Amino acid sequence: MIIETRAYARAGLLGNPSDGFFGKTIAISVRNFGASISLYESPELLIEAQSQDGNSFKSVYHLRDSVSMLGYNGGIPLIKAGIKKFIDYCEANQVRLPNKNFTVRYRSSIPRQVGMSGSSAILVALMRALMRFYEVEIPLEQLPRLVMVAETEELGIAAGLQDRVIQSYEGCVYMDFDKELIQSRGYGNYDRLDPRLLPKLYVAYNTNLSKVSGKVHSDVRARFDRGEEKIVRTLAEIASLAETAKNYLMEGRPEMLHELMDRNFDLRRSIYDISETNLALIQTARNLGASAKFAGSGGTIIGTYRDDEMLNRLFVELKKHNARVITPFIV
Asked: Mind telling me which residue stretches traverse the membrane in this protein (predicted)?
């Protein structure tokens, strides 16, 4: 029997990047793109290499572009790290696994290096496959942290809980990363919201390469840890936008998210350096009347739009900046 599992891209709707600083966020899963795992029993444990894991290239330019898009190691280190952390979890919780091996392969259609969390999607799909194969139940609220530590502790990737939460829960989720809860039990309060409450949303991602995810938070992290007043105050206000947005959605006032999303980006810009490429996407969308903010760490923006006419204009104008526009499919 072949086990097939999937996990999807994600977009931060409001509150990011406060999630890395015990803040609050709302995020959506974007089912337009996904990562899949195929796993079946075999005599030995085998991780099948994909094209991005190979060492054969058409030219030096092909190698350069491949490394820029996929990194130096492809997805195999993620698979190894995920399997190790799954085994560590089982041993720590005295779960005895049957003596059987498997062959595993991964695939992903999630655009890389534009902040849609392609790496964590592979790991979430892998954990789901391993749970089915070994008949192990990992509580849903604990799964995001298990995925996160596979990236942070094993691979040294800067990662937060938000992406792993929305990819584990799916749909639309409000997250409160209360410091005491995170430190005492390893997870915050996660509330599912009905996606039908959301306004009309678009997502636009740069088809040229952006900064690698995980490399943009270092300076702000150091300043936050030092207790710098401006950083602490700004991140707290960003977090409050998510809570305000949740209340608006529950009241049936989705149109109010337009101003909140613009404010989210403006606050972020006050403490982060924003590249001209990313800023052009934001400004182009706003000039057309749409709201716009980062969906992640850069390279992808998300916002609200009024009608199909505005959406069509977003398609045309953002394409001039090498950006592809989609309407996110959320279940």
From this structure: none
d(CA 118, CA 46): 22
163 is catalytic: yes
Q: Are residues 88 and 140 in the same domain?
A: yes
Domain of 294, CATH number, reads 3.30.70.890
Distance CA 126, CA 117 (A): 14
| E strands in 65-178 | 101-108, 172-176
Question: Of residues 19, 88, 163, 225, which has the active-site annotation?
Answer: 163
Q: Are residues 34 and 131 in the same domain?
A: yes
Q: What is the pLDDT of residues 149-194, one digit of tens each?
A: 999 999 988 888 999 999 999 999 999 999 999 999 999 999 999 9
For tokens 């005599």, what's the residue? Answer: 43
φ and ψ at 30, to 5 degrees? -110, 100
Residue 131 structural domain: 3-193
Q: CA torsion angle for 307, 116, 26, 185 (degrees, to 10)?
A: 170
Instruction: Please tell me the pTM assigned to this model.
Output: 0.92
